[in-house]
Specification:
214 residues; L-fuculose-1-phosphate Aldolase; 8-stranded mixed beta sheet
């Protein structure tokens, strides 16, 4: 899919997606943010301090591929993170970042493998997420995370931020939302199964289902 060409349609889709994520409990309060890349290369983002449950189309912000504010309300303070994904993944046209409860809980666990924070417990997780690097803790809005996020995003479309939450890029906003929900459900399974013997997909089974784009 090409970048979103019709800005009013993109704005409506972003608000509809934000409402869905919020009302289904995948984020809370004023946490979480999402964006799309428009056809002119600029980004449409949720604004700083907004709730995904109440944000309106007219409140969305525009920024460039460096994450710099162009016009509209000030963008999320993590605009740099969205911009890093788009620079790293030219075929990505949407990014979703949430503080979903179970994925955030996994990001707080001691001993998590930084190369892959969750095992491939289900086929759909292997298909929609693949491997999930855990990036070291940075305070929210700390742009020193940007180069590491961009470097890691070149080979992974999903990341987990330590003591924070997941970020996923995809070709469309619908795909990004589906993938981040799959990640949250797998994090829930992972926590429910702690202390029990598990049988994740084998590396070969997971590799056969691994996402190939964006």
């Amino acid at each position: 899919m090409s970048a979103y060409t019709d800005e009013p349609t993109a704005r409506a889709l972003m608000v509809r997606t934000a409402r869905s994520l919020f009302t289904r409990g995948l984020t809370h309060g004023s946490t979480g943010n999402l964006s799309v890349r428009l056809a002119d290369g600029t980004l449409l983002l949720t604004p700083t301090g907004s709730s995904l449950g109440t944000v309106e189309e007219a409140e969305l912000s525009r920024a460039d591929l460096a994450g710099q504010h162009l016009h509209g309300p000030r963008p999320t303070k993590e605009a740099f993170l969205h911009a890093a994904f788009y620079r790293a993944r030219p075929s990505a046209h949407a990014v979703v970042h949430l503080h979903s409860t179970h994925a955030a809980a996994v990001s707080c666990l001691d001993g998590v493998d930084p190369a892959n924070a969750l095992p491939p417990l289900t086929a759909y997780y292997a298909m929609r997420v693949g491997t999930l690097p855990l990036l070291p803790y940075h305070p929210p809005g700390d742009s020193s995370l940007e180069p590491l996020a961009e470097q890691t995003a070149r080979t992974h479309h999903a990341l987990l931020l330590a003591n924070h939450g997941p970020v996923i890029a995809a070709a469309t906003l619908e795909q990004a939302a589906d993938a981040i929900e799959e990640l949250e459900e797998t994090a829930k399974l992972h926590l429910l199964l702690r202390g029990h013997p598990t049988r994740p997909l084998t590396p070969q089974q997971a590799a056969a289902l691994a996402p190939t784009s964006p």
